[in-house]
Amino acid sequence: MAGRKWSLIVAVVALSFLGASTVNAFDANALARLTAEGSCQRCDLSKAQLANAKLSRAKLAGANLTGANLAGANLAGADLTSATLMSATMSRANFRSAFLAGADASGAKLMGADLAGADLTGTILTGADLTGATWIDGSTCASDSIGSCRK
Fold first, then answer.
1. Rounded to whole angstroms, what are the CA distances from 56 to 11, 74, 87, 108?
2. Are 43 and 61 within 8 A, CB to CB?
3. CA 77/CA 57 separation, integer angstroms
4. Which CATH superfamily is domain 1-151 in?
5. Where along the chain do its domains lie?
6. 69: Cα separation from own chain's centroid
């Protein structure tokens, strides 16, 4: 009887961990739509693995990319207006001439990202690491560029 009780407890704990791992995870259908159509406006791509993805001119306005991995991704000319990019990894990503107006990139990792010509009007960068990023005017952000580009 004690063995069955422990088996049940282990099963419940395991299922709770499995359920917890899918909470706040991206929608697989949304990722498929982005891949096929280059568009996924207002969709859930939180924690999606998009490193080195080719997403130039993608339509991602209002998308939730919280905690997503966009390291090295090409988002040149993409529309990320009002997107949520909190704690996303975007180091070495290409955002050249992208639209990020009203986006929330709090705590994002933008080290070495290219933001030249990007529209950052109203973009929230609180705690974002911009070390070595190419700023909207083409200058390089200094190593202490947290929350804003220091030159």
1. 45, 6, 21, 20
2. no
3. 5
4. E3 ubiquitin-protein ligase SopA (2.160.20.80)
5. 1-151
6. 6
Predicted confidence (pLDDT) per residue in 85-124, tens digit: 999 999 999 999 999 999 999 999 999 999 999 999 999 9
State the burial class of residue 147 (Cβ atoms within 10 Å of its Cβ: 0-12, 13-18, 19+): middle
Please name which of 116, 105, 117 lies closest in space to residue 148, comparing C-alpha atoms. Answer: 105
Question: Which tokens is 45 given?
Answer: 């791509």
With contact defined as beta carbons under 8 Å apart, do 33 and 53 qualify?
no
Q: Please give the structure tokens belonging to residue 66.
A: 């919280």
For the beta carbon of residue 65, count every other beta carbon within 10 angstroms: 29
* 137 vs 45: CA distance, rounded Å: 29
Is the entire prediction scored with pTM above 0.85?
Answer: no
